[in-house]
Amino acid sequence: MKIISSDILKLTIIASLCTLIIAITAGLSTAQRISYEALKRSEDVPTAYFDYNIFPPASPEEDAQLVVSFKLGHDFLNFRRGRGNSADSTFYADVEIGIEVYGVESSGDSPQESEELYTDRIQETRGSRRAENRRSRRTGEERESLGREFWNGTAYAETYEQTQSSHQHLEGYIAKTLAPGDYEITSRFSSDQRTRNTLPKKITIPDFAENGATQVYFLDETNEVNIPANKPLINMGRNVFFGKDFNALLMIPEYNEQFEYRLQLKKLELNRQDTSSVTVYDEVLSSADIHSGLSLNPDRSQNGPVQISITNDNTPYTYALKQIPNSKFENANYRMEIWQINEAEEKKMIGNRRFLNRWIDIPTSLLNVDVAINMMRFIVNDETLSTLKDGNERERERKFREFWGARNPTPETEYNELMVEYFERIDYAFENYTTPGNPGYESDMGKVYIQNGKPINITRRFPSNQPAVEIWEYNSRRFRFEATSGFGDYQLRETR
After folding, report:
1. For residue 1, which of 393, 264, 328, 245 has the smallest C-alpha distance?
2. In the predicted model, is pLDDT for residue 318 greater than 50?
3. 82 by DSSP, 3-state: which?
């Protein structure tokens, strides 16, 4: 687990799209500068992802495919009441995704991934498609439009709650064949007369006839993949799922069986001064991991999860396929690196890809280490709480991890069910027992729920001319609450 801070959150939550709840440590250092309520508000951001993958051609002399995939949460879409083309739905949302490709002059430098977190920022736009804009807003380079491609689809929902869900999605992809060179891609999302743009994305299509460049694909598959296969890509921008293993498929240019190839994962610590890293995974690719002659193609249906077809087609490309034990890693930023070591023991990094190990349903308190520690006041004494709060941010996080690590019922994985259960109780108390002027976790009902969990039985009584009564029963305890107002305020009157 990685605790997040609000300064980095502010960088990633841009306009109405930015969806990453970033799991890194930087920024604010005290709970007084950020509250649980502020973190809760930051979660109310619609979810949408865009990602870019390059698929090599069947023959190196042909052009490659750029695949722009997207995944839009229902809470990001604009639904209308009506059945649309589905007889089973009550709401629908028509969506159009468009990409425009511009050619730009090459800088002559090899493309490098920046250390900034991956998020395609979307902004509201007005007017037409602005095809006349020939200069990149990001780089200032002259550019020439090479055409547009569009995707149209409809999302359906049976209930209003489903229209607001961040767990239901509309997804697909747009493929564009491109010759080797440098390009700038703009993506446009339209729904119900609202249009939003991503910022331009710089893409370099390698020349596969000149050995190309390492390509890295993440497959949403926890088990080992047997080729041939048809598997979904992890279509979450540059994110993977925290607590879930996945498979990495790596194209290795100029593969030499006499050389050693290593796959490393490095956890990144990003701050304004520099970037440091710690190696958390280091494996030599074995002959069983290497597959020659593979062909990769996206699913032609273009609807639903983005599938990739992996077949043996006698192509000149060599790939490595490796299962990544991601359930053992914290939700943090990582860089996957592919290293080549020749017979003279000379090392060369031949490819890399950064990603965020993202915890989709992270309890709100865990977005900030100080808020998380402060919320532990319901289960630890003052001395323990003071010890946890002492020290700089890195020290506080270390002590927080050690506290819960010692209580992890599944120490072989990073996901700690006991810790998650506790902080989910905080969320439940806030959402169900908050009244005007008093957050749910400070209420009597909230505190009992946080400390004891869900009651086995709840009895409600409404005596004549007396306050309403609610009784919570557990295996060996009983709590009696009494209403003090008409706004849901209940006070604990009796404990047995």
Report:
1. 328
2. yes
3. coil
